[in-house]
Amino acid sequence: MNTLFFKKNQNESKILISGVFLLASFFSIAQEKQQDTTKVNQLDEVLVSAIRVDSKTPVSFSNMSKEELAKRNLGQDIPTLMNYLPSVVTTSDAGNGIGYSGIRVRGSDATRVNVTINGIPYNDSESQGTFWVNMPDFASSVQSLQLQRGVGTSTNGAGAFGASLNMLTDNYANKSTGEISSSFGSFNTNKNTVKFSTGLMNDHFEIAGRLSTLKSDGYIDRASSDLKSYFLQGTYVGKTTLIKALAFGGKEKTYQAWNGIDATTLESDRTFNSAGMFTDEAGNIRFYDNETDNYQQDHYQLHWNEKISENWKTNLAFHYTKGKGYYENYKEDADMADYNLDPVGTITTTDLIRQKWLDNDFYGTTFSANYKTEKLDVILGGGWNKYEGDHFGKVIWARYASQSELGDHYYDDFSTKSDGNVFAKANYQLLDNLSVYGDLQYRNVSYKANSWETGLVNDNFNFFNPKAGLTFDINEKNALYGSYARANREPNRTDYENGSPKPEKLNDYELGWRHVSEKVRLNTNVYYMAYKDQLVLTGSVDDVGSPIRQNSGDSYRLGLEVDATVRLSKQWTISPNFTLSSNKNVDFVTENNDGDLINLGNTNIAYSPDFIAGNILTFEPINSFRVSWLSKFVNDQYLNNIDDNSGKLKDYFVNDLNATYEIKMNSIFKSIVINVLANNIFNVDYVSNGADYGGGYVYYYPQAGANFLAGLTLKF
Fold first, then answer.
1. How far does CA 5 lie from the centroid of its chain?
2. Torsion of CA 495, 496, 497, 499, to 10 degrees
3. What is the pTM of this model?
4. What is the DSSP string of 57-99?
5. What number of other Cβ atoms are within 10 A of residue 34's Cβ?
6. Which domain holds residue 320?
């Protein structure tokens, strides 16, 4: 079966590659005119104009272009590619940046980082997390991304409590293009990608697409990934109109690696994975070979941008996402009653294999209108989205035959969530050197759910989120800015499963200085984020690896962020950054072993290192060859909120090397690009994530030692 499937995929790939060559040849002949590149970029960037910021906005942010992503895009997930941005900490269950991976910004976990794709929310509506494993190799279809730290600007989806990340997918191409790339590396990692674009046909129409496969054994035992993804877009360009229809998605099968290991195992067997472990009837320790997560997610987007006049532009988008899949577990000595299985005689427990399913639909619309003059830039907009999810489980095998039917659902839960918002924001050039920023957002969230863990949930939230700021240009090279932003955020499903959570509130104060000169770009930002009822990570995770949180009353994050790019010479560039912060729960109250409440005073917020630093040193002797040395330091961090040193991650300092060489061609191929990435070149044993269940039960997620990836890309 697997062999036939592999051969079928090989044949399909050959057909697709041949088709790409034919399309590229045909449409390059069919084109008669070329569109202005600047116009192309401006039209596409309108899709994210309602949520992006620039140097005139008093917000701390970082941009990454397609070219920057491509240097290290050899199969690792987007969080790993963003690892060297300020205030960012990344982690990976499999240990090598492929499969389940996560990102934290300013100590806030991925559920608090708002993610959008072309302005459409990507965070899962219930968990509020972002599952990059469902979009393997998505970086190959990203034109640019922007990470806004703090509350940022008004955005669709859940409120940003640590950062917001917005991604713009590929621009339409002016000329027909094609690209074939393959990479391989440690842990049997292999990625293959085919891309094409017809270019603008008759100056108006373009069709473009991508097909990717990605496989890896992972650093952790059996933490394998078998991933497939696609991206297809059709574009119409008129004199005042841009219409884009997109379909993209992915299918993943990953062996579970979310259990972690204890301190003793960390010292003796760093790659050990307990997932799927069971004892057979002969008393032998074995591992179930299908202890996997299986999920498919398909996204559909339709964007319509219209330029009404020189001052007015509008943007309307519709979207639909379909997700369906399950994870499978081998359970030892399970209570039959928990799975609606009838006892067999006196036998009431059995080994069994279960599947827990998700079947969900997410759909809605976003819209905006932009009025822009020399001094005034106003955007009015909003969005409405609805999520409908079914949760159900079934037993597909049991050691002891039951009178019940295998495959019947042993639970059936549902959830629906509606999320609507409207906003108005403006930048006004009050004086030649002073601009004023204002932003008002109203958001309504309605959430209904039913399960044995949550009981019946029927909550409705109304949030008002104002923002305001000033930008003062000292001179052509220097600018100061200051801003205030308010954010509110609803609990997620896991919060309801573990108690009666309250919504969170955040007041975010930012003060910054930007310097831009011929050789130096410098950004300095001081932030104070004051939280009320912040849902902080306790350090524990549930049985599917989701982090468990609790309201902490008052808490704050106070920090200094500095990042720079310095051109040392024509060949040498250095890009350092660091974040120095204090992250505290105020008068933190918890229970002791006797169940009594105790006030621990001010404690450190879990997963919030007080010092993070990164650097990229680049040597470019010629335009076509570049070598970069990338460094990352993350200070120690607590895995709990009670300052218990037994649950603490050690600091770590890792270094990577990245080399890119492009060979220009005058034949069939325009160029050949060679990329090499050597990760953790000093073979440091480090841990980037962990879980503290209390009572000394601490588990760690070790990351890979020295490893490499290498890739070859043919462009035509």
1. 30
2. 90
3. 0.90
4. SS-EEEEEEHHHHHHH-SS--HHHHTTTSTTEEEEESSSSSSS
5. 12
6. 215-715
